[in-house]
Every structure is written in C-alpha cells, then in structure tokens.
C-alpha cells in the first residue's frame, strides 16, 4: 500500500523578480535616483534622502514580503502594505515638486499622459526607460514617475487582495500545520484500518485452510 501525505505547511515560493509590480518598483527606484541627481540639490536638502529611501523601501519590502510569505502570510501582507505606503509617500513628493516648481501635472485627458500611460502599462523594467531619461526635463520625468507609482499601486492592490483571500480561505502557517497534522493522522488511521482488515482476511483464510487439512480435503 502506497503512503503519501498531502499536507503542505510552507507556501509555494514566489519568484519576486518576475512580479510586474516589483519590476516597476525597481524602475521607480532607479529613476528616482536619477531624478534627484539631476533636479534636486546634492547637499542640504532632506527631500533627496526621503525620496530615495521611500523608493528603496517600496521595492525592498516587496522582496522581504515575498520571502517571508513562505512562512507567514500575515507578515507578507503587512510588508506589501508597507511597500504601498512608501510608494504613496513618493508619489506625494513628486506631486509636491510639480506644484512648488509651477509645473504641470498631466491629467488623464492630456494626450501626452495617455501616451505615457500606455507606454508604462506595457514596460516594466528600468532598461525600457533608460534611453529616454537624459532627454526628459523635470516635468516629464516627474509625470513619468507619477504614472509608474500609480500603476504599481493598482497592481499591488490586486495582489494584496489575492493574499488576503488566500489567508481567509487557507489560513496562516498555524492553520496549515494543523491541517497537515490532521491529514497525516487521517491517512495513518486509514492505513492502519486497511492493514487490520487485510490481517483479518488472512487469519480467516488460514483458518479455512487448516479446517480443510483436518478434513483431508486437498483441493485448496
């Protein structure tokens, strides 16, 4: 009889490098470093550190959340929400920059914004944007980053909603451990019951054969 336990405690690992919103968050980080280098003072302005750290926090918490998600669904959801919060903070910084420098924040009906949104929708990596960065002024680059932040946030919202649904339906590691132990005990009980039944049949067969031997019946 083949025995196989189906209970799984650890979740299937997520390849975070392949997540669209991680790839966009990495592009946001690298573009933010470039934006701060070109358009903000190199010394004496705390905004630079805040923006770079917010961008880095966004992508790093996605990595940590994905890694921790194997053992803790709660921590994964928490870190993903921290990543969202960091990128929302960064988005606010870009909005402030445009406002304080009297630059335009492109609206949805602006043809330039429409083209930008379509490009960002289908391009996730920094390498997709690198050839154009040097040609962009601060208004263009800030609007690009606002668009990327917005799209990344939407992708993360959908992902977090999926994680929350999995947590409700499958539970965290404690629930998975309990389910695995319960499944193991059930399969052990079923295996023992099958062995007992097989043993009962063998005993009955042996008894039958012994009785035939005593009767001299050799047709067995």
The gross shape turns out to be rod-shaped
Number of DSSP E strands = 0
* Share in β-strands: under 5%
Oligomer state equals single chain
Helical proportion? over 70%
Radius of gyration using CA atoms only: 31 Å
The largest sheet, given as strand count, sense and whether it forms a barrel, is: none
Q: How many DSSP helices? A: 7
Please tell me the overall pLDDT.
85
Class per helix and strand makeup: mainly alpha
Poorly predicted spans? 1-7
One letter per element, helices H and strands E, the order comes to HHHHHHH
First-last Cα distance: 27 Å
Protein model, in words:
Helix 4 (111-122) crosses helix 6 (138-170). Residues 1-7 have low confidence and may be disordered. This protein starts with 19 loop residues before the first helix and ends in a 5-residue tail after the last helix. It has seven helices and no strands. It is 76% helix and 0% strand. It is rod-shaped. The chain is mainly α.
Write the SSE topology.
Elements: H1 20-39, H2 46-68, H3 73-100, H4 111-122, H5 126-133, H6 138-170, H7 173-215
């Amino acid at each position: 009889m083949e025995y196989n336990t189906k209970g799984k405690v650890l979740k299937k690992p997520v390849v975070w490098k392949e997540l669209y919103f991680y790839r966009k968050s990495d592009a946001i980080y690298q573009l933010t470093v470039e934006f701060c280098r070109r358009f903000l003072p190199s010394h004496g302005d705390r905004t630079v550190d805040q923006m770079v750290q917010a961008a880095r926090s966004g992508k790093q918490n996605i990595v940590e959340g994905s890694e921790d998600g194997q053992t803790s669904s709660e921590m994964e959801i928490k870190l993903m929400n921290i990543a969202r919060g960091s990128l929302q903070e960064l988005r606010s910084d870009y909005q402030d920059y445009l406002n304080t420098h009297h630059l335009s924040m492109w609206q949805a009906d602006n043809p330039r914004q429409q083209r930008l949104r379509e490009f960002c929708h289908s391009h996730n990596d920094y390498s997709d944007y690198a050839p154009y960065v040097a040609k962009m002024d601060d208004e263009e680059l800030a609007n690009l980053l606002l668009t990327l932040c917005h799209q990344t946030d939407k992708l993360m919202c959908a992902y977090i909603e999926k994680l929350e649904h999995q947590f409700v339906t499958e539970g965290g590691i404690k629930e998975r451990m309990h389910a695995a132990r319960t499944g193991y005990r059930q399969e052990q009980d079923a295996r023992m019951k099958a062995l007992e039944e097989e043993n009962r049949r063998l005993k009955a067969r042996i008894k039958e054969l012994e009785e035939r031997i005593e009767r001299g019946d050799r047709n067995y």
